[in-house]
Every structure is written in C-alpha cells, then in structure tokens.
Specification:
rod-shaped, Beta Polymerase, domain 2, about 325 residues, 2 domains, about 60% helix
Length: about 325
C-alpha cells in the first residue's frame, strides 16, 4: 500500500493513490510504503528515481548499511520502531528511510502506531511540519513518546506483579505466573532500550551530517535528551524486575523448604518406632518379653509413645509451623 502526503500550510494531507497516474500528478513530501507490492515498488522507483532496498537490505544491522549516502546523493537510513501487538507480544520493526529530492520515502512491512500518530497529529497541528526532514524528526520524536508510554505500561504491570509476589502466602502456581509476567515485561523493556539506542544513533547521524536547520538541530537535541531520560527508567525497571525475580525464587525455595522440613520431621519422629519394631523383630530364641502375655500391647504402646513424643517436642519448639 502506498500512502502519499503533501504539505499544505504546515499540515500533512494524504492523497489517495489508485493508479500510476495518480502518483505522477502529485508532488509529495512523504511517500510511505506499507508492505508494497512489486508493482507499487516499480511505480515509486520509476516516477521518483529512487532505489528501494530489498527486505534483506532493510534488516541489515551493520552500521555501514544502516546509515549511508548512495552514489546518486540519496541518503539511506534504517531505523527500528517498537510494535506492541494485541496478544501482549512486542517486536521491533525495521523501517528503511530514503531522503531524496526534498522527499521522504519510508518502507516497512507492518502498519506501525508511530506512523499513524504522526499522520494524525500533522493533520491537526498547522505549522508543525516544514519539510521532509521535519517529518522524519517527528517520527523519531513520536517513537520516543510511544516508548515512554510502553514503559508506563510496564510500571503498571509490575505493580500488579509486586502485589502478587509480596502477599502473605504465595503458592507455587502464583509464583510461576508472576515469573512468566516478569519475563514478558523484561523482554519488552529490553526491546524499548534497543529501540531507543537505535533512534539515538539515527538522530546523531543526522546531526553529524549537518542535514538539519538550526531549528531542526534543536529539535534533534531535545529528542536525544528525552532518550537520555528514558535510559534511566529502563535501568530502574531492569533492577526492579531482577528484585522481583529474586524475591519470587526465594518464596519458591521457602515453600520447598517447608515440604522438606515436614518430611525431615516425619522421618525423625518415626525413627524410634522403627527401632523398637526392629528390636522385637529379631530372631533370637530368648527375649525378655517373648512369653509375656502383654508383650505385644506393650510394644505397640511403646512405639506410639516414641512417635508422639518427638512430635510434641517439635511442636513446642515451633518446628512444625
């Protein structure tokens, strides 16, 4: 799908594209290709004279392939954007940007929420967009805001996990569910940190390349300051998740130790009756109680007494709690 936007009084206006002729008759400031077909790629390449990268080229993580200037002067950037899906899963989507002929071309396979937010805001805020570089900076700025919102979601989810972990009695099933939730939040936090690192690299590249006007340079520095503040939040969340994981594992160990303690107490308590039964089970002809009519009840009562006495002692010491 091709989304074409023109600049009108500082606002982005989307132009519907149904055919190649529709694309020829516009002068866009931003051409956004979302999972384009081969025909749509050919339209953009032939009309605007840009070389769109293949999928393998988009996913290349080498710095030399992510930020470079082509022989014809086109500037190519590869940037990561966070995508949270309905099932609670998250992933990072790589977007290819091409800055050529005072236009911004973007290529990606998924419809990203950051791109939808930029389109919506640019339509409602006149004067916020001056050229194609403003569009790119607005995408990066909105990506930082989207990551900040995702971090707030992690905070809220960890608060629920904290209440579950720090309750008076936590079962092994609750502990397993909490560990699973913490693993998901840790994974999302790591993706956000990686995403912010990539955005910092892209904005820094634009600043070093002297591609920005003074106002745009100030906007880029503000983006870097926002990213710097988010780094502290991600580090705090890593520490909080590690603390909750250690606490949860500790509670699991406590529950297991309680079970082991019960088995240990039971084995010690039943050791004297076992000893008595072993003594009277020996095959010696002369035993003092062998011909005694009360020998059997005496042995049974002795074994019961030897079992009850340790239990009473352990209970008095508080070892059965």
């Amino acid at each position: 799908m091709i989304n074409v936007f023109v600049l009108q009084n500082g606002r982005l206006s989307q132009i519907p594209i149904e055919s190649r002729e529709d694309l020829v008759n516009v002068t866009p400031v931003w051409v956004d290709l979302t999972d384009p077909s081969d025909e749509e790629r050919d339209w953009v390449s032939s009309i605007f004279g840009v070389m769109l990268p293949d999928e393998d080229e988009v996913k290349d993580i080498e710095a030399s392939a992510r930020y470079y200037e082509a022989d014809n002067g086109d500037l190519h950037l590869r940037s990561d954007f966070l995508l949270e899906e309905d099932e609670g899963e998250s992933r990072v989507v790589t977007v290819a940007f091409i800055l050529a002929r005072n236009m911004l071309f973007s290529l990606h396979n998924d419809d990203l929420p950051v791109f939808r937010l930029v389109r919506m805001r640019a339509r409602s805020r006149p004067g916020s967009i001056g050229d194609f570089k403003d569009v790119l900076l607005d995408l990066y700025s909105t990506d930082v805001e989207y990551s900040a919102d995702a971090l707030e979601g992690i905070y809220q989810n960890l608060e629920e996990v904290s209440r579950s972990v720090l309750q008076k009695d936590i079962s092994d099933q609750d502990a397993a569910a909490s560990l699973n939730a913490m693993a998901r939040e840790e994974d999302l936090n790591g993706r956000i940190r990686r995403n912010m690192m990539d955005t910092r690299r892209a904005v820094s590249f634009m600043m070093r390349g002297r591609l920005l006007s003074p106002d745009q340079f100030d906007d880029a520095r503000q983006i870097l300051r926002d990213i710097e503040s988010l780094d502290g939040h991600t580090a705090f969340l890593f520490d909080k998740i590690n603390f909750l994981m250690d606490a949860t594992v500790g509670f699991i160990n406590i529950n297991q130790n309680k079970i082991i303690k019960i088995f240990s107490v039971a084995s010690v308590a039943f050791l004297p009756p076992t000893l008595i039964a072993s003594i009277y089970g020996m095959n010696f002809r002369i035993l003092p109680e062998l011909d005694w009519s009360f020998g059997y009840p005496f042995a049974i009562l002795l074994m019961i007494a030897s079992a009850v006495t340790p239990f009473l002692y352990f209970r008095r010491r508080g070892w059965l709690r």
